């Protein structure tokens, strides 16, 4: 049997997607990971964040499959905004992107990368493992330090990541597992937007993986969200991240839709 996780990006776009669900998850995703600058061109959202390289914060995001007026002119205009930031244009294709636009970027020799699966879970009825509970911290600086350390990312990104987390408007839980001798072991950010809980930045220190820390910290975040009346949880994970997919499926997460990024490959 072929599952959603086995299908290619082109096979899952756009006919297999529940578009109202996609629109809602895209909206809560924007609020959970806010860009510094957001501009609109019709239904296209142009997201830019000078201090952070994340594609989720720096991409053109079309939000209406029927919006394909003057796509070539508008794409060139949006691309110039990225040039002003000194970075190449990136387009994020979800099931809400117009096929006309995707045909155009294919013809212009844009290349697809970082296929990502958006997953959801019925949190109200999920059976969460009986693990040690961790309470969220209110210390953003400490959480950012821990997240960068467990992710193996440069501490130079601390100001940008702290700014992003400070800009999150919905209630957020910052969870950490630490060792007094060795330091941070695992982190996760849970953003509760009404009845939806978004799982962000889940990270386990490389040398401590496969010890159950991911299960422990994810359980704490989901338990916290459920106590605050969240009924569903969502997250985003790269399609190639088999260990993470296995973890999330264990909690009852299943695929809702996929997205991918596109960029113009430099001429050789």
Automatic annotation (TrEMBL):
GO molecular function ontology, one term from the record: acyltransferase activity, transferring groups other than amino-acyl groups
Keyword tags: Acyltransferase, Transferase
Source domain of life: Bacteria
Signal peptide as annotated in the record: none
One Pfam family from the record: Rv0428c_C
EC number: 2.3.1.-
The keyword Lyase is assigned to this record: no
Protein name as it appears in the record: Acetyltransferase
